[in-house]
Write a structure and sequence with these properties.
Layout: H1 17-23, E1 40-46, E2 55-64, E3 72-82, H2 88-104, H3 110-116, E4 125-126, E5 132-133, H4 136-150, H5 161-174, E6 183-184, E7 191-196, E8 199-202
Antiparallel strand pairs: 1-2, 2-3, 4-5, 6-7, 7-8
Length: 211
């Protein structure tokens, strides 16, 4: 290829072909996850008291290092379906952005904290079982958290024996609607803090000021 020179030459340098190719090498920070033809997934159901229609959340995973000792699952994409068209636009946006983050790889657990911190200005709701949800988006974040825990990407248990014992104790001492009258937890934000044995205890995450 011919290059036209319009200025006076004041110096020159000989570049070898192998050096030129080395300088042009681009290194990616992290390769995008590739989609297999068939993915394994799990579907979760959300039913809020604010809608007659349930919301179904499907998270599909890819298998990394299949057949080796380092085999593990990673989320690849998320789909949210509902007959309620009121939230259609932001649901489509949320699923596309979340799926894009999943495909980037790396640590995706930050999504849980970000989504669970979203509060509906119109007020939250109590899901079945008495757990307070500040918004639908927050409950979607909780579903993602539940999925990441189940595939081993996040530490924690969905329900420990100790926490279940505290819930039963609160039900026996304070009644069926104990959580419905709870205060907000400083640790997880749930409106589930009750007084048990002269100690404030969160029936959602198990946090207790008495240890």
């Amino acid at each position: 290829m011919t290059t036209k020179i319009d200025q006076k030459i004041t110096g020159y340098e000989v570049v070898r072909p192998d050096e030129e190719q080395a300088n042009a090498t681009v290194t990616q920070i992290a390769p995008l996850l590739e989609r297999d033809d068939v993915l394994e997934g799990t579907t979760y159901k959300i039913k809020t008291p604010n809608s007659d229609h349930a919301m179904y959340i499907t998270i599909n995973d890819v298998i990394i290092n299949a057949g080796t000792s380092d085999e593990h699952r990673r989320p690849f994409e998320i789909f949210i379906n509902s007959k309620n068209m009121e939230h259609f636009m932001w649901i489509v946006a949320l699923t596309r952005i979340t799926s894009a983050v999943f495909r980037k790889g790396g640590d995706v657990t930050f999504l849980v904290e970000e989504l669970k911190a979203v509060f509906d200005p119109r007020g939250g709701y109590y899901k079945r079982g008495g757990k307070y949800m500040p918004s639908i988006v927050a409950e979607i974040g909780e579903v993602i958290q539940q999925h990441l825990v189940s595939i081993g990407m996040m530490e924690g248990q969905l329900s420990t024996p100790e926490l279940e014992a505290k819930r039963r104790e609160a039900k026996d001492k304070l009644g069926e609607d104990a959580v419905a009258h709870g205060n907000q937890c400083d640790k997880c934000g749930a409106m589930a803090v009750v007084r048990l044995d002269n100690c404030n205890t969160c029936l959602d995450c198990g946090d207790s000021k008495c240890g």
